[in-house]
C-alpha cells in the first residue's frame, strides 16, 4: 500500500504501523506515537486508517446500468495507474513476485518444490501453472495447456484481487478506496483481467467489468487450469 500511495493517487488505507514479530517487539511505524501492539499479537499485524464509504458488494445489485458502468470505468482507470508503478531496482530480477519480492501465494503459482524457485520468465510461469494443473489431476489438456496459456513478456504491478468486497464507494458511487493488497505484486499484464474474470458471486459484476475493459486477453488456458485447481 505504501508503494501505491507513494507513486499514485489511487485511494488506499494509510499504514500506521506494522508488526511482523512473534512478540510484538519489532515494529515499523510512520507515526510519532503509534498504538502499542498487543504483546500476543499474531504475526503480520498491520494497523491502518479507515477508508470512508461502504463495500461495493453491498450496493452492486441495487445499482442501475449507468451506475454500474461508471463504477467499472472508475476501477479500470485506477487499475491503469496501478499498472504504471515502476518496479523497484532491487526487484528487477523476477518476472513475477509479490510486492516485497517474495514468491506469490496464488495457488496457481505455488511451487511444488522447496526451496521455492523464482519465476524469471513467462515460460517459467506458464510451466508452473502446468505443473500445478498436472499435479492436481488435470489430464484433458495435458498436451495442450502450455500452449493454451497466454504468452506475455510484460510484467506489471497488479492488485490481483480486485473484487466488490475490496472496493469502497460513497453514496454517489464514487470509488473511495481499494482494500486488501496482500496478493499485490508483479504479474503478467493479463493477470488483473484474469483475476477479475474469475467465477464469483457478485451477479453481473464481471460482465460489466468485461464490457468496460480497455483491453481483453484470451483466458482459455487460465480457465482450463482453474477448473482443476479450484
From TrEMBL:
Location of region: Disordered: 21-43
SUPFAM superfamilies found in the cross-reference section: Protein kinase-like (PK-like)
Source organism superkingdom: Eukaryota
Domain Aminoglycoside phosphotransferase: 4-200
InterPro entries reported in the protein's UniProt record: AGP_Transferase (IPR051678), Aminoglycoside_PTrfase (IPR002575), Kinase-like_dom_sf (IPR011009)
Compositionally biased intervals (Basic and acidic residues): 25-35
Pfam family, one: APH
Protein name, per record: Aminoglycoside phosphotransferase domain-containing protein
Taxonomy of the source species: Eukaryota, Fungi, Dikarya, Ascomycota, Pezizomycotina
